């Protein structure tokens, strides 16, 4: 038994001996051919040599080429896992002649290698040729002597090989191995040839033509040879197994998967799929492909996702795929050092992709299961396939794979229809763009039908994720903040002082909470957050305005019009609106008016507005040309921009204004109007704030509660509160007076006691003392008392209140020429971290360091003595 590595080497050695140059495998991404998705055969790197566009130093070559057959021409993805012989990734052993030898040598070499080098019994081999290729048929039958019973001629479908839609091609001859009658399948060319009994192992292509994009064939400069033999298929033959997945290259991988999943059922399609896919995914990443949503990256993503889904079937719910990189490297790292080197990167990319897909896989599978359970026919709806693709990231071949397991097919036409419908919507949405930063570019107009109705059905025309720097998206998911644009809406967008509506958008898949509605040109933008599920472009949604905000806002807006008219009637026509804000809680109205407004006038205004409310005037709107409105004397606001057509809003005969806002049906709906504040905010501009309806009632109630609790605290009836307060004020004044008297008495007593402590220095009485807890007033009074008692004196008193030092110094008039109260107070203050000042006879200071006070006071007599002796000299 030969290992795959030995077979690879034997092959290359054999052709080397036949003067072939051993050329290493090229990358899976063809560097010389933009028409080709992946390297799908050994000849790809020699394409230009066949076409005569490139010459090499050799005319014969041999290689073991890594190949990919997924996506594009030669796509085997769907068959992987279900046959013994298909792979997305495999190695192709080949020998090539660039205008050197042709059919005869190619056939002789192949036969010699198989029957002599590898010693395969000729009676297990079967040969096919292209039906018109008599030359090849003759060589096989007459020269090589192949048994005519093991020989068939096939049509172009089987025996004319092309690398792609364009490029080199030619008739071919294939060699099959017969795995024996125990395996189902007919001989090549028979109806049953797709079975696994006769396996094609080697294809000899007699390269003769170049196919152009119209399908026209022109001869190559020189007839050439390109052969390809699948290493895995040959290894199966040489290792005496029928199934490719039983050869050495796969055995360890399959063991690794069964160890991870605990599933041991050999022949399980999922095991094969995963073992195949880890090879292709790893090598695609090694060769520079990254999972993405288009081109090669999408093929990689499809293969990874298919593998993950099969893992899921085996009970692998945690990322597992990346863990197969290690056993793969053990198996193939020696033959492919680039795989060995890139293994960490491969693991990381695979793990990321697994984590990403596992978020939606379960959900998608559930939806698909439900759909299958309710299916009456045998085809899964295109809409479902599309939804799985678009929302849950299920590539369509993955859905087809699952369908196949249930004996079902998928509706590809329906899928494509849904896809093109979405493209159309995306095109329509391109009228609405995020243009970088906080900028949106929105063309068109949202139809506003929110005057009459709070609930309507709308269609999502555009979606943006984020509100500060919005980004155009096709879907918003739970938790996403964003902006929704609808074709029509019941949501009022902030304008004319009225705030934007709040509410909800309910789609079939999700709920969006709208926290604000604004206007961008004529487009209403609904700002908010997806609370549940998701919102998608094209979704039909129930747009429902929250009445709890809208109704009080309407009351406040209508009351603003009544207030405006009442102000003009009471204060005069010079009153003009300067600004307004209307929300659910209150209204704010700024207007021009010189001078104050008396309370009595304010009450008059309030009463006039409430009279209109009780009159229950009808509120009517009329759309008319702006000029007509202006001609009829309707008040337009200076600086406000109006369109050609305007909406005129009348409340009986009391008020007429141009206004686009939402209003009550009749003024009686306002219920009650209450001014809560009035003030000047700039010269000649005043502001009134008011509340209506429920809020007005609430405001009155709160005031009443406040009054009652004041009354309770004062122990008086509410209507006696004022009398009680006056009585209390009187009492306080009386107590102040008494306190004053007591302080004076206290100072007298303290002063009397302290005077005894004064010491005489140079004929002057000097006193420095501390009175615990005395305030400034007490200290001052005491100093005054002492001054009159001691007649010729220098006095400083200190106290500590709340950790701060207070100092008062006094000097009798007859001594101020020798010593100043300010100097004395500062002498002490400096020592307690403070400073002060005052008149020569009386000064005050503060200090921050009470701990130093006693010491500072003790130093006073000496300091005074020094001053006096210096001056008196
Ligand atoms: N190019 C041919 C094939 O891929 C032979 O190598 O089958």
Automatic annotation (TrEMBL):
<keyword id="KW-0820">tRNA-binding</keyword>
<dbReference type="Pfam" id="PF07973">
    <property type="entry name" value="tRNA_SAD"/>
</dbReference>
<keyword id="KW-0963">Cytoplasm</keyword>
<dbReference type="InterPro" id="IPR045864">
    <property type="entry name" value="aa-tRNA-synth_II/BPL/LPL"/>
</dbReference>
<keyword id="KW-0479">Metal-binding</keyword>
<dbReference type="InterPro" id="IPR018163">
    <property type="entry name" value="Thr/Ala-tRNA-synth_IIc_edit"/>
</dbReference>
<feature type="binding site">
    <location>
        <position position="663"/>
    </location>
    <ligand>
        <name>Zn(2+)</name>
    </ligand>
</feature>
<dbReference type="Pfam" id="PF02272">
    <property type="entry name" value="DHHA1"/>
</dbReference>
<dbReference type="InterPro" id="IPR050058">
    <property type="entry name" value="Ala-tRNA_ligase"/>
</dbReference>
<protein>
    <recommendedName>
        <fullName>Alanine--tRNA ligase</fullName>
        <ecNumber>6.1.1.7</ecNumber>
    </recommendedName>
</protein>
<keyword id="KW-0547">Nucleotide-binding</keyword>
<dbReference type="InterPro" id="IPR003156">
    <property type="entry name" value="DHHA1_dom"/>
</dbReference>
<dbReference type="InterPro" id="IPR018162">
    <property type="entry name" value="Ala-tRNA-ligase_IIc_anticod-bd"/>
</dbReference>
<dbReference type="GO" id="GO:0005829">
    <property type="term" value="C:cytosol"/>
</dbReference>
<keyword id="KW-0862">Zinc</keyword>
<dbReference type="InterPro" id="IPR002318">
    <property type="entry name" value="Ala-tRNA-lgiase_IIc"/>
</dbReference>
<feature type="domain" description="Alanyl-transfer RNA synthetases family profile">
    <location>
        <begin position="2"/>
        <end position="702"/>
    </location>
</feature>
<dbReference type="GO" id="GO:0045892">
    <property type="term" value="P:negative regulation of DNA-templated transcription"/>
</dbReference>
<dbReference type="InterPro" id="IPR009000">
    <property type="entry name" value="Transl_B-barrel_sf"/>
</dbReference>
<dbReference type="InterPro" id="IPR018164">
    <property type="entry name" value="Ala-tRNA-synth_IIc_N"/>
</dbReference>
<feature type="binding site">
    <location>
        <position position="561"/>
    </location>
    <ligand>
        <name>Zn(2+)</name>
    </ligand>
</feature>
<keyword id="KW-0436">Ligase</keyword>
<feature type="binding site">
    <location>
        <position position="557"/>
    </location>
    <ligand>
        <name>Zn(2+)</name>
    </ligand>
</feature>
<keyword id="KW-0648">Protein biosynthesis</keyword>
<feature type="binding site">
    <location>
        <position position="659"/>
    </location>
    <ligand>
        <name>Zn(2+)</name>
    </ligand>
</feature>
<dbReference type="GO" id="GO:0005524">
    <property type="term" value="F:ATP binding"/>
</dbReference>
<dbReference type="GO" id="GO:0004813">
    <property type="term" value="F:alanine-tRNA ligase activity"/>
</dbReference>
<dbReference type="GO" id="GO:0006419">
    <property type="term" value="P:alanyl-tRNA aminoacylation"/>
</dbReference>
<comment type="similarity">
    <text>Belongs to the class-II aminoacyl-tRNA synthetase family.</text>
</comment>
<dbReference type="InterPro" id="IPR023033">
    <property type="entry name" value="Ala_tRNA_ligase_euk/bac"/>
</dbReference>
<dbReference type="GO" id="GO:0008270">
    <property type="term" value="F:zinc ion binding"/>
</dbReference>
<keyword id="KW-0067">ATP-binding</keyword>
<comment type="function">
    <text>Catalyzes the attachment of alanine to tRNA(Ala) in a two-step reaction: alanine is first activated by ATP to form Ala-AMP and then transferred to the acceptor end of tRNA(Ala). Also edits incorrectly charged Ser-tRNA(Ala) and Gly-tRNA(Ala) via its editing domain.</text>
</comment>
<dbReference type="InterPro" id="IPR018165">
    <property type="entry name" value="Ala-tRNA-synth_IIc_core"/>
</dbReference>
<dbReference type="Pfam" id="PF01411">
    <property type="entry name" value="tRNA-synt_2c"/>
</dbReference>
<dbReference type="GO" id="GO:0000049">
    <property type="term" value="F:tRNA binding"/>
</dbReference>
<keyword id="KW-0030">Aminoacyl-tRNA synthetase</keyword>
<dbReference type="InterPro" id="IPR012947">
    <property type="entry name" value="tRNA_SAD"/>
</dbReference>
<dbReference type="GO" id="GO:0002161">
    <property type="term" value="F:aminoacyl-tRNA deacylase activity"/>
</dbReference>
<keyword id="KW-0694">RNA-binding</keyword>
């Amino acid at each position: 038994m030969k290992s795959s590595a030995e077979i690879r080497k034997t092959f290359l050695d054999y052709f080397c001996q036949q003067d072939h140059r051993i050329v290493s495998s090229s990358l899976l991404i063809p560097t010389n051919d933009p028409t080709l998705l992946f390297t799908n055969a050994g000849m790809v790197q020699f394409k230009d040599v066949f076409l005569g566009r490139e010459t090499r130093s050799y005319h014969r070559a041999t290689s073991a080429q890594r190949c990919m057959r997924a996506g594009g021409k030669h796509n085997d993805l769907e068959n992987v896992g279900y046959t013994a012989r298909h792979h997305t990734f495999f190695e192709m052993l080949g020998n090539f002649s660039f205008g050197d030898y042709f059919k005869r040598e190619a056939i002789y070499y192949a036969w010699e290698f198989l029957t002599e080098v590898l010693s395969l019994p000729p009676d297990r081999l079967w040969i096919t040729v292209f039906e018109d290729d008599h030359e090849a048929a003759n060589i096989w039958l007459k020269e090589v002597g192949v048994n005519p019973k093991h020989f068939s001629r096939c049509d172009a479908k089987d025996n004319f090989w092309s690398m792609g839609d364009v490029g080199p091609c030619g008739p071919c001859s294939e060699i099959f191995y017969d795995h024996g009658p125990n395996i189902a399948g007919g001989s090549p060319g028979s109806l049953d040839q797709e079975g696994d009994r006769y396996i094609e192992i080697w294809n000899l292509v007699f390269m003769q033509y170049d196919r152009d994009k119209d399908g026209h064939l022109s001869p190559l400069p020189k007839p050439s040879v390109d052969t390809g033999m699948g290493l895995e298929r040959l290894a199966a033959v040489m290792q005496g197994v029928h199934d490719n997945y039983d050869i050495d290259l796969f055995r360890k991988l399959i063991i690794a998967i069964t160890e991870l999943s605990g599933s041991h059922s050999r022949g399980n399609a999922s095991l094969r799929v995963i073992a195949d896919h880890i090879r292709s995914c790893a090598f695609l990443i090694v060769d520079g492909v990254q999972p993405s949503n288009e081109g090669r990256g999408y093929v990689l993503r499809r293969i990874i996702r298919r593998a993950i889904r099969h893992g899921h079937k085996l009970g692998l719910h945690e990322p597992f795929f990346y863990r197969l990189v290690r056993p793969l490297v053990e198996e193939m790292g020696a033959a492919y050092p680039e795989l060995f080197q890139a293994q960490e990167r491969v693991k990381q990319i695979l793990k990321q992709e697994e984590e990403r897909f596992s978020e939606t896989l379960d959900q998608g599978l559930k939806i698909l299961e439900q759909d299958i359970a309710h299916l009456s026919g045998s085809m899964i709806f295109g809409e479902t396939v599309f939804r799985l693709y678009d929302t849950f990231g299920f590539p369509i071949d993955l859905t087809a794979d699952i369908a196949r397991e249930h004996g079902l097919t998928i509706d590809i036409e329906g899928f494509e229809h849904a896809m093109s419908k979405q493209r159309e919507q995306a095109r329509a949405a391109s009228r609405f763009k995020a243009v970088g930063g906080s900028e949106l570019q929105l063309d068109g107009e949202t139809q506003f039908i929110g005057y009459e109705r709070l609930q309507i059905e709308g269609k999502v025309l555009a979606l943006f994720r984020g509100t500060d720097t919005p980004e155009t998206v096709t879907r918003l998911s739970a938790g996403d903040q964003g902006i929704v644009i609808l074709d029509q809406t019941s949501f009022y967008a902030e304008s004319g002082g009225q705030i934007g509506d709040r509410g909800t958008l309910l789609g079939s898949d999700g709920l969006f909470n709208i926290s604000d509605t604004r206007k961008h040109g004529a487009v209403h933008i609904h700002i908010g957050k997806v609370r549940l599920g998701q919102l998608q472009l094209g979704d039909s949604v129930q747009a429902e305005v929250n009445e709890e905000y809208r109704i009080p806002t309407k009351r406040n807006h209508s009351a603003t019009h009544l207030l405006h008219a009442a102000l003009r009637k009471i204060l005069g026509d010079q009153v003009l609106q300067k600004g307004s804000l209307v929300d659910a809680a209150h209204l704010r109205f700024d207007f021009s008016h010189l001078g104050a407004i008396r309370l009595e006038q304010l009450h008059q205004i309030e009463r006039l507005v409430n009279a209109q409310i009780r009159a229950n005037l009808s509120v009517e709107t009329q759309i008319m040309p702006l000029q007509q409105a202006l001609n009829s004397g309707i008040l337009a606001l200076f600086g406000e921009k109006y369109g050609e057509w305007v909406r005129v809003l009348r409340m009986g005969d009391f008020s007429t204004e141009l206004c686009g806002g939402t209003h009550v049906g009749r003024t009686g709906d306002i219920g009650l109007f209450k001014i809560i504040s009035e003030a000047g905010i700039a010269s000649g501009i005043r502001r009134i704030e008011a509340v209506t309806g429920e809020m007005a009632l609430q405001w009155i109630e709160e005031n009443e509660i406040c009054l009652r609790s004041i009354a309770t605290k004062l122990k008086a009836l509410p209507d006696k509160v004022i009398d009680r307060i006056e009585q209390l004020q009187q009492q306080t004044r009386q107590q102040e007076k008494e306190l004053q008297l007591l302080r004076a008495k206290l100072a007298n007593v303290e002063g009397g006691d302290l005077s005894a402590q004064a010491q005489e220095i140079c004929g002057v009485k000097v006193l420095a003392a501390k009175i615990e807890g005395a305030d400034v007033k007490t200290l001052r009074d005491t100093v005054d008392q002492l001054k009159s008692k001691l007649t010729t004196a220098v006095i400083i008193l200190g106290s500590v209140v709340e950790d701060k030092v207070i100092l008062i110094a006094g000097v009798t008039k007859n001594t101020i020429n020798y010593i100043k109260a300010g100097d004395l107070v500062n002498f002490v203050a400096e020592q307690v971290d403070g400073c002060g000042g005052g008149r020569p006879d009386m000064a005050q200071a503060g200090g921050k360091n009470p701990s130093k006070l006693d010491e500072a006071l003790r130093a006073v007599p000496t300091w005074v003595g020094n001053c006096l002796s210096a001056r008196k000299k």
